[in-house]
Design goal:
By secondary structure, the protein is mainly α. It has one domain. It contains five helices and no strands. The longest helix is centred in the C-terminal third of the chain and has 12 residues. The two termini are about 15 Å apart. The model has no long low-confidence stretch (mean pLDDT about 90).
């Protein structure tokens, strides 16, 4: 069992390692990795160019193909044999409710994963 991202397991399976990636029927958490530009960035135009490059179809496709990352870009296709994101049931959480329950969630996590 692995906790966290699926892409490391997908890559291991692609390399022939004896693992199976199983997504919970009740839903899998979706963790969005934000990206932004600091208000006082020393090189804001360079940052904008990087953002444009990073979120381009070409770069997003490379991340999906080479690193098994997920993308919401309409032109990005999952690598053959990878479960498409639109075929997975995603858990939805209210951030305010998660914050209220954060200590309870952490305690349950620690108990389940013995950490």
């Amino acid at each position: 069992m692995a906790d966290g991202n699926d892409y490391n397991l997908v890559l291991a399976k692609d390399q022939g390692k004896p693992v199976e990636v199983v997504y919970p029927a009740e839903g899998a958490p979706l963790i969005i990795v934000p990206s932004g530009i600091f208000k006082n960035a020393p090189n804001p135009n360079a940052a904008r160019l990087f953002q444009s490059y990073f979120f381009s179809a070409e770069t997003q496709q490379m991340l999906a193909d080479e690193f098994a990352h997920r993308s919401f870009h309409a032109k990005v296709k999952e690598k053959a044999g990878h479960v498409p994101l639109d075929k997975l049931k995603m858990l939805k959480a209210d951030p305010a409710q998660v914050q209220v329950q954060s200590e309870e969630i952490k305690a349950k996590y620690a108990k389940l994963f013995r950490v």
